[in-house]
């Protein structure tokens, strides 16, 4: 199953045994003997009411006398605590406790019988009460009305010390929201009481709204009001200093005029008709710590032949509306679409029909999101119960009283990556799996192993290229909130292929009108390019504790070090311009980690292939023949080179040398030279020096060496020729020497008489030419007495010319 629900809390396991033990102990103390048997249905009324920002869970139940009891489960200590008991038969539908656990707010529904005899407020349907519970003391009636009132305490971000004022939200079915400011004081030691309880200051936060949602993690209130039949989403942020402000507002193209009143995440909603749930619209706002904000919307469903749902990516400025046809529409659908917040992803599913995993941070290309239809076995394993999505990937099942943490299954995603035939599903599964693993060596090893065996499995994108870019991105994305704006997450820029089973319409939407602004700052470069490269290599070596199988990172390779250092400088400058408030040292380390990760992935891919084909260090010499295993590794290296070249990514120093060695082993000469000419093989000085030393001067090797030398850059070519003791190299050296001498030569009148005794062979054209060279050398020596030419002079040129002529004449 792609989605896993791991239980963090279970009423039946974390609360019920404790309640039974408490009751048994109480009865034993009263009777002086063992407690009476506790019947299984004694706690049928036990249910969850709310989950607070700190993770504490408030629950309620009725005892055998009909009294309403409130309890709290501390998620940190995993202990239970009884908060308060109402000695009357009331139905609780909303409750909240302040962070210090000194005040309890609750809304209760009275039966007709209870309304007549209730001492607190007779005649009212709904009572909203505020209770001092540290210790249990006064009870204040906040509201006594015939409409429902929901309650929610605000939880400040700073919880190190009690605040003198508590803030409580009241959300009315009559479409207004109030904030109560409750001043408390300590009396008689630790006793907490409400000051001036007769008059609690109130602020009207919102009114005439049709939908509202509470974000317990960020302490934000989202609500929608209708202006001229237009839905406007507004967000109010509450702060630790007890202030609040309108954070943004944005118009939404959703139809809410006839939808009635709807609240999301204000505790558990037990009053909604579960039978009609599948027909109702669904609307929820999801955010994550990276800054994404999306609104998920599913309109009322008149028929089940087609399902339509929309996601408004507020942070991107566009919306996507998806439509899918259901299979087996004759089957009874017991619930509507479920939206779950999985932090970086949003899951949209209908059990038994489809599962859509949306990448909300990078929604532009549909191939980065995973869509599975009902014929996939993973669909049938999705939970069928109505779920309530909270912050931080938490999911509440009010029916069973369980709080889950929703996770993506790495094993299922890897299995899908390996088995699916569709490129779009491979792409999505790869990104989802890397997000789950977040740079773990074991997961990367599994993916690399599969890639090395299926390097040509994808036709729409380069698999190696996508893996390197995506894995490097996911390894550092959590370092800052806007990493997606700073680093590429994919090598694919466009995707025009349709996704089977779903149609898509993309529309631009208005960006939110923000009430706050910020400033940017920038700094200059502080490191040189070569110093940056040294730091990257050191950082890379620190990642790998064991010895490397492949001979990488063991040579200078100035070209790759230059590219590496340039990338560090440019990326660091890029980060410094766009990351506000992040320390310079942290940015430098983030850059080093990212580039080191890129190189480490390449090393990892190569070492996996090396280990798979059981290669040894003996192949590093040119005087051996290529095997099938070497050709397989050469093919992988070629694919790595193709993947990195178009992205201008650096390669580990030594990569090109090893690639060239394997190319010489495995390819015929004409193929080898074609690879060099087309840029597939890049000749390094290390590789060519080793080739000159390892290979003898057979006719075949001479042809190879000469072909290689001709393709070298001039400076490296001259250096290599001096290492090869052969007439061909002497000829090349002589030509270069003559070219340099005659570069600025101006013909001067000369004596036609030549001293023949100074020449070993009497050949007038050669004798005349050598005398000219000798004169030029003498003149240069007088002008530049310290300039050396590696013992190459006119005499060397004469000897080389004679040897070359002798060879041409076959003498």
TrEMBL record:
Domain of life of the organism encoding this protein: Eukaryota
GO biological process: positive regulation of amyloid-beta formation
Any GO CC annotation of this UniProt entry: trans-Golgi network
Entries under InterPro entries matching the protein: GSAP_C_dom, GSAP_fam
Pfam families in the cross-refs: GSAP-16
CDD domains, alphabetized: GSAP
Annotated Gamma-secretase-activating protein C-terminal domain residues: 599-706
Signal peptide, first to last residue: none
Protein name listed in UniProt: Gamma-secretase activating protein
Upper taxonomic lineage: Eukaryota, Metazoa, Chordata, Craniata, Vertebrata
């Amino acid at each position: 199953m792609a989605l896993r629900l791991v239980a963090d809390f279970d009423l039946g396991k974390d609360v019920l045994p404790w309640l039974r033990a408490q009751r048994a102990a109480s009865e034993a103390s009263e009777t002086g003997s063992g407690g009476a048997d506790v019947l299984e249905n004694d706690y049928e009324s036990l249910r969850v009411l709310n989950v607070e920002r700190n993770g504490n869970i408030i629950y309620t139940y009725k005892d055998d006398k009909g009294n309403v009891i409130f309890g709290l489960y501390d998620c940190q200590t995993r202990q239970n605590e009884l908060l308060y008991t109402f000695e009357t038969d009331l139905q609780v539908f909303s409750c909240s406790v302040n962070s210090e656990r000194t005040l309890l707010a609750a809304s209760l529904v009275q039966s007709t019988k209870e309304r007549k005899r209730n001492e607190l407020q007779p005649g009212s349907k709904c009572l909203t009460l505020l209770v001092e519970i540290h210790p249990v003391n006064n009870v204040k009636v906040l509201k006594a009305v015939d409409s429902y009132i929901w309650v929610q305490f605000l939880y400040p971000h700073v919880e190190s010390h009690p605040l003198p004022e508590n803030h409580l939200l009241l959300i009315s079915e009559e479409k207004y929201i109030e904030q109560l400011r409750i001043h408390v004081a300590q009396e008689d030691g630790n006793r907490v009481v409400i000051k001036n309880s007769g008059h609690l200051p109130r602020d009207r936060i919102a009114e005439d709204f049709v939908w509202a949602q509470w974000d317990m993690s960020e302490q934000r209130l989202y609500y929608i009001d209708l202006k001229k039949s237009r839905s406007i989403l507004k967000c109010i942020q509450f702060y630790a200093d007890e202030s609040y402000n309108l954070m943004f507002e944005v118009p939404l193209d959703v139809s809410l005029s006839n939808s009635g009143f709807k609240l999301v995440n204000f505790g558990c909603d037990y009053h909604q008709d579960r039978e009609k749930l599948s027909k109702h619209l669904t609307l929820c706002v999801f955010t994550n710590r990276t800054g994404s904000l999306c609104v998920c919307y599913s309109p009322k469903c008149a028929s089940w032949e087609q399902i339509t749902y929309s996601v408004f990516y507020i942070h991107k400025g566009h919306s996507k509306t998806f439509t899918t046809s259901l299979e087996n529409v004759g089957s009874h659908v017991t619930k509507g679409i479920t939206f779950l917040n999985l932090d970086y992803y949003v899951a949209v599913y209908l059990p038994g029909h489809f599962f859509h995993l949306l990448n909300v941070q990078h929604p532009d290309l549909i191939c980065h999101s995973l869509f599975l239809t009902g014929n996939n076995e993973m669909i049938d394993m999705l939970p069928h119960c109505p779920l309530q999505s909270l912050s931080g990937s938490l999911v509440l099942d009010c029916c069973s009283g369980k709080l889950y943490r929703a996770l993506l299954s790495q094993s299922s995603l890897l299995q899908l990556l390996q088995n699916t035939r569709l490129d779009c599903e491979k792409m999505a599964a790869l990104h989802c799996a890397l997000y789950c693993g977040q740079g773990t060596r074991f997961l990367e090893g599994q993916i690399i192993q599969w890639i090395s065996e299926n390097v040509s499995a994808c036709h729409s994108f380069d698999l190696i290229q996508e893996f390197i870019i995506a894995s490097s991105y996911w390894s550092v994305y959590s370092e800052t909130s806007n990493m997606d704006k700073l680093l590429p997450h994919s090598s694919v820029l466009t995707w025009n292929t349709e996704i089977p089973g779903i149609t898509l319409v993309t529309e631009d939407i208005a960006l939110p009108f923000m009430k706050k602004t910020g400033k940017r700052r920038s700094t200059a470069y502080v490191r040189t390019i070569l110093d940056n490269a040294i730091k990257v290599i050191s950082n890379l070596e620190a990642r790998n504790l064991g010895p490397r199988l492949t001979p990488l990172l063991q040579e200078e390779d100035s070209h790759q070090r230059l590219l590496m250092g340039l990338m560090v400088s440019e990326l660091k400058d890029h980060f410094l311009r766009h990351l506000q408030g992040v320390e310079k040292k942290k940015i430098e380390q983030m850059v080093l980690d990212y580039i080191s990760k890129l190189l480490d992935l390449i090393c990892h891919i190569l070492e996996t292939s090396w280990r798979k084909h059981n290669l040894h260090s003996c192949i590093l010499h040119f005087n051996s023949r290529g095997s099938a295993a070497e050709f397989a590794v050469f093919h992988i290296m070629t694919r790595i080179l193709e993947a990195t070249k178009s992205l201008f990514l650096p390669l580990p120093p030594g990569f090109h040398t090893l690639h060239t060695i394997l190319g010489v082993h495995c390819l015929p000469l004409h193929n080898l030279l074609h690879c060099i000419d087309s840029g597939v093989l890049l000749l390094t000085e290390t590789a060519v020096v080793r080739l000159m030393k390892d290979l003898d001067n057979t006719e075949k090797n001479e042809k190879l060496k000469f072909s290689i030398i001709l393709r070298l850059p001039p400076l490296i070519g001259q250096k290599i020729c001096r290492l090869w003791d052969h007439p061909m190299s002497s000829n090349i050296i002589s030509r270069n020497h003559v070219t340099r001498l005659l570069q600025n030569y101006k013909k001067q009148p000369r004596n036609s008489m030549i001293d023949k005794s100074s020449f070993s062979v009497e050949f007038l054209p050669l004798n005349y030419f050598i005398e000219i060279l000798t004169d030029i050398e003498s003149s240069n020596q007088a002008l530049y007495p310290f300039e050396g030419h590696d013992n190459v002079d006119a005499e060397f040129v004469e000897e080389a010319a004679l040897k070359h002529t002798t060879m041409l004449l076959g003498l």
